[in-house]
Amino acid sequence: MNTLEILFYALSAFAIVSAVMVLISKNPIHSVLWLILVFFAISGHYVLLNAQFLAIVNIIVYAGAIMVLFLFVIMLMNVKKDKEPQKQHLVKFIGVIAGGSFLTLLIALVKQTSQLEGKTVLLKEGTIGLIHPLGKALFSDYVVPFEISSVLFLSAMVGAVIIGKK
Amino acid sequence: MPILNYIYLCLTLFSIGVIGVLVRRNAIIVFMCIELMLNAVNLLLVAFSKMYNGAAYLNAPSTTIGIDAQIFVFFIMVVAAAEVSVGLAIIVMMYRNTHSVDINFLNRLKN
User: What percent of chain A has pLDDT over 90?
Assistant: First the structure.
């Protein structure tokens, strides 16, 4: 087992444990903090895949901006942790069974495909995750979606303000 | 690293997100589980991009095949940021009206 495999399995276990903790924490603030840890683990995966730009953007945008927005909303609402109504145990059980069946179905489907046999992922090497090739592609082939996304942001900003002012 | 390992990891994360949406009643945590699902998909897109790039990398080290998936991930992050701002505004409005973030109160569209 070389270093890359150890890192992969450690980051994967870290991500999955943190994701489970997001679900089972009673306090919403603890859920947000665990979700930030999931995002850090996923950023570690991006670094392992040499997608450095996405790793940094993931930390800045997701862990830095979106999660702070969640924290602000939770603090503004002052949600008491004992006030949160719990679903009945039967409903929870059925939900877990449904999700587990979904996971089993997907894994069975993936196991049947023969195209994925023996395919490997290039770790630690390759240049497509760096800023230079990504910027070139973004501002030549994808410049129209890039500009349209600014309109999307403007409309989202206007929508959030209008909804919040009501 | 085999691509199947990444697929299993992402499927597990995605299913945890699905279970969270089904099990929890707090609207904010349901929303966070949706973010978790988006991130699982992002990781899988990057893994597939590196799979296709790795096949061509041995012959031509400066190839940019597979870069589209990483740009897709970038746009998914853009859309997710816009979605979160609007969604959290809706949740705040719902809290102002009902003084609760329980999604079971959100059944007024039922009838």
Answer: 38
Taking the model in full, what pTM does it have? 0.89
Please determine, looking at this structure, whether the domain spanning B3-100 carries the CATH number 3.40.50.300.
no
- From chain A, the residues in CB contact with B67 under 8 A are 128, 133-134, 137
B22 to chain A, any CB pair closer than 8 A? The answer is: yes
Domain positions in chain A are 3-129, 130-166
pLDDT at A12: 92
d(Cα A8, Cα B47) in Å, to the nearest integer? 12
Candidate CATH numbers 3.40.47.10, 1.10.3720.10, 3.40.50.970, 1.20.120.1200; the one for domain A3-129: 1.20.120.1200
Contacts of B59 in chain A (CB under 8 A): none
Nearest CA-CA partner of B83 in B44, B28, B35: B35
pLDDT digits (tens, 9 = 90+) for B6-57: 899 999 999 999 999 988 888 888 989 999 999 999 999 999 888 888 777 7
Domain extents for chain B?
A: 3-100
